[in-house]
Amino acid sequence: MATEQRPFHLVVFGASGFTGQFVTEEVAREQADPERSSRLPWAVAGRCRERLQRVLERAALKLGRPTLLSEVGIIICDITNPASLDEMAKQATVVLNCVGPYRFYGEPVVKACVENGASCVDICGEPQFLELMKWKYHEKAAEKGVYIIGSSGFDSIPADLGVIYTRNKMNGTLTAVESFLTIHAGPEGLCIHDGTWKSAVYGFGDQSNLRKLRHASNLKPVPIIGPKLKRRWPISYCRELNVYSIPFLGADVSVVKRTQRYLHENLEESPVQYAAYVTVGGITSVIKLMFAGLFFLFFVRFGIGRQLLIKFPWLFSFGYFSKQGPTQKQVDASSFTLTFFGQGYSQGLSTDKNKPNMRICTQVKGPEAGYVATPIAMVQAAMTLLNDVSDLPKAGGVFTPGAAFSRTKLIDRLNKHGIEFSVISSSEV
């Protein structure tokens, strides 16, 4: 990790962006935590000093911290100016990178951090970017002793750490997990900023390059322990929750699989199979989502279709995404529940010829996913990098959250900050 000579423990890059402003507020809360025993010098970074100052002024007003502006450093840097990114990285122990879509703007930040000895966390939900950074920068980051941790927001800390939590709570060998995400909305409904929509459009439009990258990586298959986990139909009924569900198309499956590979190959832990779904309620919601999905999958295949999707997010997403993002009322009224159903074997029972005889159900619950839970997860990941150094992988590198944090106190930190992990039931069949 970086030395004491660096003036800032944390630097929020892209602090004036839509998500960056929420991350800035969360760092300010962490700085003021009454349980904090030491100072937390930090800074915001971006292109425009005036916009950064306005973000700090709004955070000061919201949090009742009139002196905040004088307590926080401001660094002027631009994604198109590598020298300015180098200067930012030289001043930081950990950079919190909030500038996306990461496929366009992420690599210069990773490069600057690796070359200048800063660790970095991001909130990327784009598997192609995450896997490419691992392929290009893992060895360089290890040489420098820095940690590059992708997908450290709602994508994909609840899922990745949730699987590890489920494994740790099972009295035996966990072999397979299915997760079901339920988003709870208030009376004014849901809305997501179109930055997330853009990342999805570009990601789905470039699936062929992700397949090429995975083929070029030439990784050995991870062994399957116990029966192979069967995929559900594109629309399936979850009896345990009494709702319909569809496959979750975010980064969670990619991230969890990479974590399980790391834990198996480096820590000799038994790998867990994983599938992710999102609940969609009743049959009316299913029909609405089917039409939205068909529109999306058709238009995303063509250049002009992608332009239309990006220009009119509200129309093509049936109102779920907008250029304005959610209102404060929508944020305050929203929450999420991620439920895990796991199966495995009791201690001492062979996994070769026997059927699984253990069942476990766990949950991760939290506040609004995109702009409350994501900043909490990101900031606590950064605090874990600062404080749990002896529990991180010995060398630096490019890691998933689960690979980096499986032996740290991150789950305890999240529990204290409103992202709660719990066991619902555990039994032998």
UniProtKB/TrEMBL annotation:
Domain Saccharopine dehydrogenase NADP binding positions: 11-149
Protein name: Saccharopine dehydrogenase-like oxidoreductase
Domain of life: Eukaryota
Transmembrane segments: 274-300
Source organism (scientific name): Daubentonia madagascariensis (Aye-aye)
InterPro entries in the record: NAD(P)-bd_dom_sf (IPR036291), Saccharopine_DH-like_oxidrdct (IPR051276), Sacchrp_dh_NADP-bd (IPR005097)
Keywords: Membrane, Transmembrane, Transmembrane helix
Similarity annotation: Belongs to the saccharopine dehydrogenase family.
